[in-house]
Amino acid sequence: MSKYTRTPVQGTVTAFSPFDARADAEALRKAMKGMGTDEETVLMILTSRNNAQRQEIASAFKTLFGRDLVDDLKSELTGKFETLMVSLMRPTYIFDAHALKHAIKGAGTNEKVLTEILASRTPAEVRNIKQVYLQEYEANLEDKITGETSGYFQRLLVVLLQANRDPDGGVDEGLVEQDAQVLFRAGELKWGTDEEKFITILGTRSVSHLRRVFDKYMTISGFQIEETIDRETSGDLEKLLLAVVKCIRSVPAYFAETLYYSMKGAGTDDDTLIRVMVSRSEIDLLDIRQEFRKNFAKSLHQMIQKDTSGDYRKALLLLCGGDDE
Q: In the record, which residues are listed under signal peptide (predicted)?
């Protein structure tokens, strides 16, 4: 087996069994009815059901009580805990489109969200996001993004939005050598940087091809490609190129690093912490936990434990699903 074949992805949240949507809806209504809210029941139910089951609960809730579950959560809960529970209720298919819409709406664009989503999603996922965006918001995602961004950062986003990365297949060593040389000449060997070459190669070549290109680049130049990008580019373009490279190497390692930096140092980037924990909980959060433990000498569980509090912490730890001491 080649070291580049992807192992099946593993989430921490799976379908709950035996599942009874009506019983869950009734328990949630009871937890939020009258004076005070029983947050423990809310978080226990919502973190232990998968997204498809949560949608069934919302449907049963409306059928039984004529009330909207998400509206009730918003009126009964507050702060980060509310944001997390409402995020868990968002249907999977719309999650990324919703995050992108909010990243490009109003004053200022959240480049971090654009970078994280477009660098890490597969071409099939990106095509789906564009379709959902059009259906739900009656707007063209590419037009919205180009209206809010500029320069080479914008151009690489547009390349990624085309979702035309070469499919994985046999790797042509001649082309690997050629791309590695082109990148070397476009960066280290040039006065100034030919950003376009980086954008085209990193944005369109297959994952298996690029992994070989990175190895070859190291042989030719003596540098990791990340070091060159760090030296030769800056700002939003640099962050996006680095995110693309990291995701080519390993998506779980990229998210482990994203989670680590959302909690490291003073203050927590709760938006990122919630977005990653929710969006990866059914995909590869177990793999992310392994990478986290390997790369940061502590477990994701320990860092969440230390960095958050209250019901918010309880719910995040349940999503995390275990401690890798």
A: none
